[in-house]
Amino acid sequence: MDILVIDAEGSGGMAHYASGLAEGLSWHRPAMLYTIASDDGLVPGSLTGRWMDLTRRGARVRRYYNPMRFSRLARYLGRTYQPRIVHVTSHIPAMAGMFEVLRSQGVRTVGTVHDPKPHHETRTSWSEFKTRIDYSLMLPRALARCDAIHV
Questions:
Q1: Region of residue 133 (left: phi > 0; alpha: psi -120 to 50; beta: else)
Q2: Which residue among 19, 31, 70, 151 is buried most deeply as judged by most CB within 10 Å?
Q3: Mean pLDDT of 9-29
C-alpha cells in the first residue's frame, strides 16, 4: 500500500472529499480509504468510558480527544496496511500522537486543513471553548508533526 487516506468523520462532505481523494490518488499509486468507526474497539471498555458513552458530549469527547485511541490506531494501521504515506483529511484534535507513531514507523504523514479559521456556526459557550482549544492548542500541535500540510 502506498497511500492510506484516513477519514474520521464517516459521513457528509468530509467523507465525500476523502473518498474522492483516495479514488483520484489510486489512479497514480496504490491507495485506499480507511474510515474510522465510532466504535472501533480501539478504546478500552473501562467503567469511565462506558459512563461517558451515556452522554452525547461524553462520547464525542472520548472519540475526538483521546490520544491513546489514535496512537493505537496508528500502530494498527502501520502493521496491517504498511502504508508509505498516510493522508488524514479530518480535523481531529487528538491526532498528534497518531502522527508521532506513524513517523516513528517511517511513514510520511500529510494533514488536510479545510478551515484554517474556525467557523462560528454555533454560539454556545461550550462550542466557543472547544473551538478555541482546538485551533490554538490541538491543531497546531498535530500539524507540527506532519511531513506536509494541505490547505
A1: alpha
A2: 70
A3: 87
Q: Is 13 helix (H, G, I), strand (E, B) or coil?
A: helix
Contact 49, 62 (CB under 8 A): yes
Q: Sign of dihedral through CA atoms 12, 62, 110, 81?
A: negative
Nearest to 135 by CA among 115, 110, 107, 112: 115
| Residue 122's pLDDT band (cuts 50, 70, 90) | low
3, β-bridge pairs: 31, 85
Strands ordered across the beta sheet of 148-150: 31-35, 3-7, 85-88, 108-112, 148-150
Residue 109's SS3 state is strand
